[in-house]
Predict the structure.
Amino acid sequence: MRRSQLRPVGMIAVAVTLCMAQATARAETVVLEHFTLIDGKGSVPQRDRSLVMVDGRITQVGPASRIRAPRGAKRENLRGAFVMPGLIDAHVHLGLVDGIDQNFTKYYDGDNIEQQLKLYAAYGVTSVYTLGTDGDDIHRVIADQRRIGRIDSARAFTSGRGVVFKGSYGGVPGLEQSVATPAEAQAMVQREVAKGDDFVKLWVDDEFGDLADRMPNSISKPTIDTAHQLGKKAVAHIFYHDNATALVGQDVDGFMHQVRDRAVDPALLTSMKAKDVWQIASTLSREASFTYKLLPFVDEPFFSRGVAPATIAALKSPERQQRLATGKHFAKYPAALRNASANFGTMAKAGVTYGMGTDSGPTARFPGYFAHWELELMVKAGVTPLQALTAATGTNARFLDARDIGTVEKGKWADLLVLNRDPTADIRNTRAIRTVYVAGRKLPTIWQTCVGRPADACGEAPK
Ligand SMILES: [Zn+2]
């Protein structure tokens, strides 16, 4: 706010002086200096940069020698550190679980959502796109976030309740979201968008053939068309190549999983590029997680700081491991992961636009940690660390035309991840989190977090 806006011209001098003093006190100006910048647009890292943030917005960024620190600004020397935009996870579900117990009816509320958004932020994930399993509480949370702006958690963008074909795959128990006819699909999209959804989600799958039907074209087409008529993008859960092909033909805007039944055809790649269909989430961490009886990282501090000891114990229980190993589809997951990884690599090489998304939030798929695992799996599948980071920041923001986030540029929110080591040299360095900023405010990082225990029970952060 400019000072002149605070009071009409002509106030008595003392009031103007007082008011100017208040305005000065209110403007919080911070300068971060001498870091290496990873801008979120894919530029090679730029050394010795500085930036100025005023009231949570970036007002200057550039070579350190050219940035003028405003008088009275707080300055922080970040020589040796790396500054990048906060990560955006383009596929999450909020408020579904307590520990690893998943139950929408029992656990979904504003408090649980906000707690999970804080955990995402602690991991440097400063925005999330939530994918079709939200009750109406999400709209209140998001309205508050957008009114306040300078929030103390990750920002959320929602697809509300996604569209499920009655009796087929998708959604969560306890949330009414299935449709049987094209008219019901249209009405549902209209109703959901009227509540404030940022985009529209639909599911096309049959759980390895367990379910009789996948959503037919006669439902997916009007779902996508109605979203477009209302100015929203439509994104799909897919598993099968033939559904991906059909949905591209229906002008879907993005896929929220990879094709997992086979290798992608050149024809699909060509049509995705021609119609600008984005592979916005490949959820490799989701597919990988299903291949384990016991997640291989449960004792890593970067993971275990974010979950209660009771949750670790539940993950380690022999009964659970036995149950997973004897699950009906357990043997199918390695192939699904291989296909997903190979197809992601193929798409990236072919020039399909891709983002980053994990499908974290449902049981045993952990907020925040999975974003770092996803980046690692993307690099293993064939992109460079810089490409993976660009997907997870600038590209994801562009998908929803979220203009205030995703890159480190003048005018954007200062949603920043400060790292002690170079993530473009080794993608696992995204875990070397030094500071997380949301709108210029330092939030507790995962290295300052110790869920379910006294604050000092998790020990010192590694250097
Ligand atoms: Zn999902």
Summary: Residues 87-399 form a domain with the TIM Barrel fold (CATH 3.20.20.140). Residues 333-350 form the longest helix (18 residues). Confidence is low (pLDDT under 50) at residues 1-23. The CA atoms of residues 168 and 211 lie 6 Å apart.
